[in-house]
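for the writeup, i need someone to sanity check this before i put it in the appendix. the sequnce is what the collaborator sent (i think, or maybe the updated version? ugh). structure was predicted straight from it, no edits. if anything looks off just tell me and ill rerun, i have time this weekend
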Amino acid sequence: MIFNSLQFFIFFIVVSLVYYFSPQRFRKSVLIFASVFFIVSFSFVSLMVVLLSSLLNFYAAQKSRHKILFYTLVSLNIFLILFFNYFTSASDQLQVLFKPIGFELNQLLLAIGLSFYTIQHIAYLIEVRRGKFAAETDFSIFLLASFYFPKLVCGPISLYQEIRPQFRFLKPTQQNIESGINRMLFGYFKKIVLADRLAPAVSSVFDFNDDLAGLTIIAASLIFTIQLYFDFSGYCDIAIGVSRIFGINLIENFDFPLRSTSITEFWRRWHKSLIHFFTHYIYYPIAFKLRKYFLFSTVVAIILTFTLSSLWHGIGITFLAWAFCHMTFLCVEFFFKQYCNNFKIKSNNIVKGIQILCVITLVTISNIFFRAPNSDSLSHLINQLFLLPNYIPNDWLAEFIAPLAQGGHQIQLFNFYTSLVLAFVFILFERKLFAKFNSSKLNYFSVFIILILIFVFGVFGNSSRFIYMQF
């Protein structure tokens, strides 16, 4: 039951009605039962995993002063992420091993949202041990904070101290409802109209080992970068909108990252909730520990942070290569800033535009590794990019446009060009559109227009999963 499915829409309407007509003291229970139903719609195993994880972390926090128990539970949380990431990446091979005895791994492999709520549990244990706040004594509050359904699957990752107080007083207003509807529509537009329309162009290049010109692969990776942004930020917009309707505020996860003028700035704007965790609990402690060796400490902190980030995303050479790209970009950028402090570039719109294009280019190159389905596909893509002479297409229609448009017929070209124009116009006016659809007032004309655009240009039928659901 994913956000862009009819089942979720019906589920959300029912839950909202029950929630609003329930007395305030029962609303927490409504959200708990709704979250249980939501998780079970994916798999019963997912519910068992989140219940067990929440139970262990809840009681462990009561004994957080016990050093051995604390490190054991943190290690167990990390192990859970690695365990399920490994089983997911090795599912095909493992399925062959278990096939003779008739055992199906599909349900075992699906622990929906585990990487997201496990990060929250680790941060919670650390903060309790540091004495920032007392361990929670109400398990129902702790459980709801762990598996609250709007943020469960793809975040944003909410620190316990941020979301806990909101569950104690659930009294939404009309302003909450109007603001939530605005934000949900904004998210659905990003997902259904923008991300899902760009997806075929990416899939046609990355999911088939066809011989393509290098520039075609670069173009597909650029389109994937934009698709990933629309897809992931669209999910977060919907999650934030749903929560606002319940009177709960989730943190913002994106801050227009495609307008960043440096890689450092990009990571401050992209997936902010995850980056907050990695910077505060990994990067800063490492850099502080090695502060006597300033340059060395920064490089080590960057390398370890992105290595762990790659493992959080999945176990495989593709994610490690993606992480290595960003380690390199950040280290080069760091040393450049250190040794070129006296070299001042006068900032203007042209310089800023060049910087933005450079950042998007670097992120696009790294996303070739991120999007590659497996190591074999990655090897084929690298071979096409660097080892073959036909980097520039000889026939632009046949070797560049047609692979991206999934064919050269008129209707395919029309759909492809329409998708690019919609994406470009949206990015150009994104700030203004965000301000309008982040408003606490419902603008009926804007709602009408965006609904028309969704129904005219949206991709319906088999609801496509959000990209970050795989993590």
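The chain is about 70% helix and 0% strand. The CA atoms of residues 172 and 247 lie 4 Å apart.
thx in advance!!
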